[in-house]
Amino acid sequence: MHRRRLLASAPALLSLPLAAPTLAQPAFDHTIRIIVPFAPGGTSDILARILAPELTRQLGQSVVVENRPGAAGNLGADAVAKAAPDGHTILLIDAGILATAPSLYSRLPFDIRRDLAPATMLIYAPYILAVHPSLPAQDAAGLVAFAKANPNRVNVAHSGIGAANHLTALMLAQHWGVEPVFVPYRGGAAALAAAGSGEANLIINGATATQPFVQNGTLRGIAVSGPHRLPPFPALPTFRELGWPAVDSGTWQGVLLPGGTPPAMLARWDEVLRATLAQPEIARRIGDLGGEVRAEGPAAFRAWLDSETESWGTIIRANNVKLD
Question: Which InterPro entries match (predicted)?
């Protein structure tokens, strides 16, 4: 009897809808652009070009790197803020630029919180403080002594007024009790070129871009920021060991998308970027350049950005640094 009822009900059961399938992942159907808001050769550019081939493989679409330098990174950031929120245009940037901008400018062409959506942080790379070999300082003590005795002979190259490496250099100079000459350039690559040529003789810059200059002797390493010494330069002390400020300063590279990008697309980018960074060869290349993978997702990136905006804002206001 029960068996006959079950058989009789079989057609009705077959006509019921199946359980809802897992939602399809957001699709990519045309070329994806990584906007780097700086000139080629800086940390963001190097990282974007390391990631692009693997992203192309994973996503099944061409991933191209576009350099949009100008206005201390704001030109490229604005281009992404105004792009279609469909996941095909992403911003790869030193997130410190976004953390300092609200305090440096009375007006921005975009609202960082409203118009840019964090996907994930990518890497942290400490700063290397390095000097041109023509500067007669072999270590941190020698550098401070020389700077005090020759205030007009220390020229600090940095990637722009109000950039995190400029503010870090400003904090260090105040701590040392010296007044060097601060020389702004249009991005980290230009600042590195100036320091490497001797046009400037001191630089504080991300390890990812600066490490090769120290390794080949173009620059002489003096100290590093971050929580530990860099493996390629075990003799270089950390800022913390020296009792210097800005111990955790450095370059924090992250990816953001246009505001209004659906949460599912942000989650998809977070997933893809984590998988890309986990590739052994990519992780090795980042490590060789002094970087540490810090992919922690949208919420952690947003919290970091809010915290850093407040911290850098205090320093900027205390030193009356403005760009308009």
Answer: BUG, Bug_dom1
What is the pTM for the complete model shown? 0.84
Q: Which residues of 211-240 are buried (b: 16+ CB within 10 A; e: fewer)?
A: bbbbeeebbbbbbbbbeebbeebeebbbbb
- Indicate whether 175 and 102 sit together in one domain: no
Cα separation, 143 vs 219, in Å, equals 14
CATH of the domain at 66: 3.40.190.150
| Among 70, 95, 77, 71, CA closest to 34 | 77
Q: Which residue in 99, 106, 83 sits closest to 250, CA to CA?
A: 99
> For 78-107, what is each residue's pLDDT tens digit?
999 999 999 999 999 999 999 999 999 999
Q: Is 292 a residue whose pLDDT tops 50?
A: yes
CA distances from 305 to 43, 154, 312 (A): 19, 32, 10
CATH number at residue 188: 3.40.190.10
Looking at this protein, which amino acid is placed at residue 24?
Answer: A
Residue 139 lies in a domain: yes
Q: Which residue range(s) make up the domain with 138?
A: 126-242
